[in-house]
Amino acid sequence: MRHWSAAGDNIYYASIKSNRPSTIYRFNLKTSTTTELFQLEGILPVMVPGISVSSDERRIAYTCINYKNSDLMVFSGLE
After folding, report:
1. What would the mean pLDDT of 49-72 be, rounded to a whole number?
2. What whole-number distance in Å separates Cα of residue 34 and Cα of residue 27?
3. Which helix (H) or strand (E) is 53 found in, with range?
4. Contacts of 15 (CB under 8 A, 6+ apart)
5. Measuring CA to CA, which residue among 71, 11, 15 is closest to residue 61?
């Protein structure tokens, strides 16, 4: 499934870890550098595409499972 999104010169993606919270990374296509952005509070669902980056690259929306419930989470404040 798709756990990545492209915006500007970057690709945002999640590391998928079995039954553990995942981490969101940013890969810059111009510099070929990877930056760890934040760790998710829940687990990314395997069968649901779940990352979207705003056009200004300041917010990331993602779906996650918090063991009992599902939520739409938004992380803002990216620089």
Report:
1. 76
2. 4
3. strand 51-53
4. 22, 23, 25
5. 71
